[in-house]
């Protein structure tokens, strides 16, 4: 017998996908606002479902969401025309939920609700658990959003490199001023070579495009060599010669802020409590327009109990623009059911700054330099994500 799941379309992606991906129906039917114009949303949902349920079919019907009678009549008709119906009352408008409850009771559909905070689908009439919710991946959210991954700005390091990168990052964090000058020097020198070249030879004192002179911090270059990011280092007082150990190492050593991204990525990976940890992810927000356009790069993304977590890393002070950018990115993929964390090398939290207060208002966790330099930074990161309370955010002005 064909199992049919009836859904009310919701602008929150998670409400549209959790029921079908948990219950694996043969058919899913969406009733949606007749004022909705972009039908690629349903193409995206079908793509998401077929990844897990290859045989699934999807149907959609428009309704006037301002008329409870019309919602009721269409819902009743759908139940009558299909067999073994489950009607999920999680998404959609308030009128949809009321009309759906009436139609389901009268026509004999099983009424269910997804508790997205406590990870279970329940029978509305008995409050019994129908099923624990499925574990979702980042790909599920991206597919359902009609987006797609189009690459990474930085190749994630192999686990064997984690310790060296971690040690180098902490060294740079303690010598940020010297790192600024050294990074400018390495960027200027590397720009003279082809992207795949790793051997570098330059005067020790050089001039950048803006006319300012720069030179490397010798201690930082020696530390890069000691930890395996460059080799054959020669500094004779006039010239500097060395080879990056790989193209990836060249990219790391010429990226000022990448070390904080790597640091956070490694902390998340080594914690062992998160799924789908991704570094420097670039997303095309419209996979169906035939044009590949990268949106804003997202420094680190991970999954925490089927909820996407977006982490922005700033090796400087954060500002309102950075918070807003993070807020938009997390809402585009996960809607309300997503989390945002700002990791900034500043004293925003310690000084209870305006930016820190704004982050609290927006429901964004903020970790600052005090957290970054702490020996237990991985535990602080895990705690910030785990203790981020979505229920309390319902009553904040976000």
Automatic annotation (TrEMBL):
Domain Card1 endonuclease: 257-368
GO MF annotation terms: nucleic acid binding
UniProt cross-references to Gene3D superfamilies, sorted A to Z: 3.40.1350.10, Hypothetical protein VC1899 like domain (Restriction endonuclease-like)
Signal sequence residues: none
Protein source organism: Anaerotignum lactatifermentans
Superkingdom of origin organism: Bacteria
Name the record gives this protein: Card1 endonuclease domain-containing protein
């Amino acid at each position: 017998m064909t199992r049919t799941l009836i859904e009310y379309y919701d602008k929150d992606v998670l409400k549209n996908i959790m029921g079908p991906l948990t219950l694996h129906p043969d058919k899913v039917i969406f009733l949606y606002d007749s004022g909705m114009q972009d039908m690629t949303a349903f193409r995206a949902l079908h793509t998401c479902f077929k990844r897990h349920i290859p045989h699934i079919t999807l149907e959609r019907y428009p309704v006037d969401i301002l008329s409870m009678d019309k919602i009721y009549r269409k819902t009743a008709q759908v139940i009558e025309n299909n067999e073994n119906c489950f009607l999920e009352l999680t998404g959609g408008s308030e009128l949809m939920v009321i009309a759906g409850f009436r139609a389901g009771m009268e026509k004999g559909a099983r009424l269910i609700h997804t508790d997205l905070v406590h990870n279970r689908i329940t029978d509305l009439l008995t409050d019994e658990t129908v099923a624990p919710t499925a574990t979702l991946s980042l790909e599920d959210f991206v597919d359902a959003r009609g987006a797609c991954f189009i690459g990474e700005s930085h190749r994630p390091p192999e686990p064997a490199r984690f310790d060296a990168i971690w040690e180098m990052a902490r060294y740079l964090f303690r010598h940020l001023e010297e790192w600024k000058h050294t990074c400018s020097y390495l960027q200027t020198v590397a720009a003279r070579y082809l992207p795949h070249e790793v051997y570098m030879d330059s005067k020790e004192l050089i001039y950048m495009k803006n006319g300012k002179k720069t030179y490397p911090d010798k201690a930082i270059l020696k530390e890069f060599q000691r930890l395996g990011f460059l080799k054959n280092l020669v500094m004779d007082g006039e010239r500097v010669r060395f080879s990056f150990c790989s193209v990836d190492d060249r990219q790391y050593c010429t990226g000022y802020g990448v070390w904080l991204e790597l640091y956070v990525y490694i902390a998340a990976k080594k914690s062992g409590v998160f799924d789908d940890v991704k570094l420097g992810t670039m997303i095309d927000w419209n996979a169906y327009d035939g044009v590949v356009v990268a949106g804003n790069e997202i420094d680190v993304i991970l999954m925490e109990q089927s909820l996407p977590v977006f982490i922005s890393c700033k090796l400087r002070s954060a500002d309102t623009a950075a918070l807003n950018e993070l807020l938009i990115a997390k809402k585009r993929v996960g809607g309300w059911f997503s989390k945002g964390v700002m990791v900034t090398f500043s004293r925003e939290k310690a000084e209870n700054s305006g930016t820190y207060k704004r982050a609290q208002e927006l429901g964004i966790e903020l970790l600052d330099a005090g957290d970054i330099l702490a020996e237990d930074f991985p535990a602080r990161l895990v705690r910030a994500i785990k203790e981020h309370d979505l229920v309390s955010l319902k009553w904040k002005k976000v």
